Structures are given as C-alpha cells and as structure tokens.
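Troubleshooting: if your tokenizer reports a length mismatch, compare against these two reference records.
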Amino acid sequence: MSRLETFRAMVAKNPANALARFGLANEAAKEGLLDEALTNYEAYLASYDDEGNGWARLAEVLEQLGRRDDARAALHRGIEASHRFGHVGMMHELEEKLAEME
C-alpha cells in the first residue's frame, strides 16, 4: 500500500483525524492531485491550530491552481499563526514567499 493509500484509509476510518488529513494532503500534493490536496489541507486547517507550515502548503496548492489571491490570504494566515506560536523563522519564510508573490 502506498503512503497516499495509507493516508486515504486513515481519513476514511476517522475523517476528524487532523494529522491524517495533513498527511493525506501532503501525499496528494506530491502526486499532483491538487484538488484532493486542497480539500484535505482545508479540512486540516479548519480543525487544527496550525503553526504556519500547513498554511504555507495550502498557499502552494492554491497558487498552483491559479488562485493567487487565496494563496496570499493563506500566507497571511500562516504569518499570523507563526507569530502567535513564536516561530520567527517560519514567519520570515512566509513573509518572503508573500513578497515574491506581490
């Protein structure tokens, strides 16, 4: 069973498992399954107080889908989250990505 299939099975068994959603989103993104990645990043972020990384990954998928305004909004949310959690390095990385997009 592939990692993608493993995470799909985990989410099917327990859709409320935020970390399984994050894993599924990551694997789907690696495989170029952007809609599946988007759905699972959104579900993950709706149920888990992410520290910034999840928002960055969501922004990447949104940008690949041509949704640049939504990608910028996700980066702003990631910057806020990383600041709230005291992750200065992540905050600066997200600010750089945002500056590159603008």
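Reference record two:
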Amino acid sequence: MDNWIVDKPMRLDKFLKISRLIKRRTEAKKACLAKCIRINNRIAKAGDEIKIADEIQINLTNKIIQVRVLEIPLKNIQANQAISLYEVLKEIKKEDD
C-alpha cells in the first residue's frame, strides 16, 4: 500500500474530497466558509490541517455526520478504499419541517 502515509497532515478540504465525505474540494471550501464543518469541536477553515485521530463534524443539508480520521492517504485513492480513511462516530438525520 504505497498510497498511505501516517505522519504527514493534509488540508481539510483535500481530505474531505479524497475520502468522499464531500464530492468536490470547492464544495468543501464553501462548507467551511459557511461554518458547517468542525475539527475537534472548533470551526474549521478549508486550509486547516488534519491528522490521524482528529474528529470532523460535517453539518450537511439533510444530516450531521461525525467521523474520526483513521488514515491519511498520500494521494488520491479508489472509491472503495475511501471508507477506510475514517470511522463514523455519529450520524443524525435531520427532520423535514
């Protein structure tokens, strides 16, 4: 597995795209600007660096998801490997009003 590295942090927006938690890097940046993303319970910026064991909370339109970073890839990975980058801690579906 030469696509993995464990000691180098990665930008939040890039990690969200590679892990497929958010589809595009620009969408991740917009979510950060809208204060919808937190790292370790503080409001995150797109350029914040994440490392293994960080907890990321994403407030999406229809749900809130909280994950713990398990691995940081060196480069882009296949979609079926993306789920191994994080562990879902909590997922709350939002009710329609």
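Descriptive notes for reference record two:
- The chain has one domain: 4-93.
- The mean pLDDT is 89.
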